[in-house]
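Predicting holo structure, flavin-adenine dinucleotide bound.
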Amino acid sequence: MSDAQPQSYPEIREAVRRLCAGFPGEYWQRLDRDRIYPTEFVQTLTEAGFLSVLIPEEFGGSGLGLGAATAVLEEIHRSGCNGGACHAQMYTMGTLLKHGSAAQKAAYLPAIASGALRLQAFGVTEPTAGTDTTRIRTFARRVGDDYVVNGQKIWISRAEHSDLMILLCRTTPREDCAKASDGMSVLLVDMREAVGNGLTVRPVRTMLNHATTELFFDDLKVPAANLIGEEGKGFRYILSGMNAERILIAAECIGDGRFFIDRAAAYAKEREVFGRAIGENQGVQFPIARAYVQLAAAAEMVDKAARLFDAGQDGGTEANMAKMLASEASWYAADMCVQTHGGFGFAEEYDIERKFRETRLYQVAPISTNLILSHVATHALGLPKSF
Ligand SMILES: Cc1cc2nc3c(=O)[nH]c(=O)nc-3n(C[C@H](O)[C@H](O)[C@H](O)COP(=O)(O)OP(=O)(O)OC[C@H]3O[C@@H](n4cnc5c(N)ncnc54)[C@H](O)[C@@H]3O)c2cc1C
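Done. Tokens:
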């Protein structure tokens, strides 16, 4: 299928497609059934160097930037695979890269680039705070050379498959801060030492195979040397990494959308009912065409947001708009694809029902659509803040 726009990074895309061909639908179906982590897929991507494209060359990555990273994730998703198991290995290190000390970067980034260390857990969300991150309660109290952490997190994905975790916690109570967003700090938690020594990880089964968990902190000791940046400024550090995450998730949505459109168009040409291909009916054609139009527009916005990010410009609104447009376009395409396939859209072996479940996530996580609209309303349009 033509993609309506020229494809960036054609060699990377071709290499990712070849790699993904080794992980066909049956592989994902088997893992999905039992909620098993795709270890072999992640290992293969790591060895091929695709997870270190955002790490500068001086630390062992390829330093290609976000545009290249979007090409990798889009192709993974278009191929019917899922990057959710490891996409955070690409961007979570951004907090360390931008705000870590020289010693921290030298200690961790080369090993993250090689895949020897996995930094793909990102601990922000809490059950009682929800999207209002300033209300998090997980607290890190400084005691001598350590922080002692108590609290709880929810929906922390890949925690069981990560050596390190970026953790946002309060170091000053909200009521003692001039601004609600002050008084939070980022700690780099070594999961290999923490689990069983103050950190308990409990898997949460969800409608998709996403290795997400709940975390309980009970007097977990984290060396003060693992504080990233300055104490009390963690919220800003986390926010600065969120644009990259939103653009990369948007690229996954574009890949999902192309997967659904490819499959629907192929099926509509071959499936015969009433003595002719169902694709001869405009009632079948038009939803596929509409999905294609919506996806092409969303892809342009993802490209624009990635270009702004790589140019070091403030593209927060574009990153949000890209994520919203792409997640809505992929969801429309998912629904269209099920409808085009009729009953077969529900059959596990077609992979469509799995991808349908997977792509639904992106209108909620990592940020829900309402919160994006709120950002656009207040930041781009200057409307009054509602919270
Ligand atoms: C599978 C999965 C994986 C995840 N992985 C991670 C992870 O690795 N790390 C991590 O930190 N978090 C993770 N999350 C959490 C995710 O980022 C949140 O679920 C998401 O940001 C929404 O927050 P919430 O669930 O607390 O919803 P809530 O904040 O409770 O909101 C519920 C609904 O109300 C709406 N709403 C809330 N306030 C307003 C308002 N003021 N105006 C209009 N609408 C509003 C929201 O848009 C949403 O639709 C994950 C979630 C899932 C489901």
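Residues 122-125, 130-131, 155-157, 206, 210, 212, 361, 364-368, 370-371, 374, 387 surround flavin-adenine dinucleotide (CB under 6 Å).
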